[in-house]
Amino acid sequence: MLIETKNLTHIYMPGTQFQVEALKNVNIRIEPGEFVGIIGETGSGKSTLIQHLNGLLTPTNGSILIDGKELERSSANLRRLRQRVGLLFQFPEHQLFEETVYNDVAFGPKNMGLSEEEIAIRVREALSLVDMDFEQFKDRSPFELSGGQMRRVAIAGVMAMEPEVLILDEPTAGLDPEGRRVILEQIKKIHHQKKLSVILVSHSMEDVSRLADRLYVIHQGRIVLSRTPAEVFSERSRLEGYGLALPPIAELMQKLKEKGKAVRTNIFTITEARRELLSLQERRKGDV
After folding, report:
1. Which pLDDT band holds residue 91 (cuts at 50, 70, 90)?
2. Percent of the residues in the chain that have a pLDDT greater than 90, as a whole number
3. Residues 93/147, Cβ–Cβ less than 8 Å
4. Which fold is adopted by the domain 3-98+163-245?
5. DSSP secondary-structure letter at 244?
């Protein structure tokens, strides 16, 4: 599924003294199967942008194209779009409301008019995707689970609709380090197994640097950079001007480089950094 925006502009409360131009001529393109990160400081327009991608918001100007065709805003078209494009907001556990995990995950498939047999298959598969045992969790109240488990149930509820695109708005917000790690591993697993497009909105430069194929940087409602993570994070001074920082590991490698150490700076994980520093140590031994 290909999603494009063309000169997308969105104005909140147009014609009033409270008018705000949240998006300004935004052009993005999400390829089938791609993992895209969207980053920008608070208030830059990230959440406004993603809400256009499954029809929750209507452009003030410009257009949304799905598979090359402009989105028609009939109720039937929007319903089909929201089955194909799953969107999870910050704190997705707030979207849970059923009495059992099974019923919550089954809610979307039921609304699609599927048979009970097909619904059961989808619920089982969706829970498996987020590493939750069907028999162990299906009859439990989602509100008795941990915060991380509730978030995984919310993700399973979207995946049970078998979307082609999964959009996640700050999916690790409010979680402890272990909870963050688990959720990110689930997202990575879903992308790998289902081959669907993933759009990750995040304030964590570390997360997007490790997961995304490509980044969009949004600043004051405009797309100001669109490159690979390595290319984006090579623009340190530019990013700082947009209120963003490098991933912590990349920041460390940059500082080592500035101190004259012969290290690469396009490194974003502890594992890569350790390997690079060991390589530096071996090179120094060879020079002795």
Report:
1. confident
2. 68
3. yes
4. Rossmann fold (3.40.50)
5. -
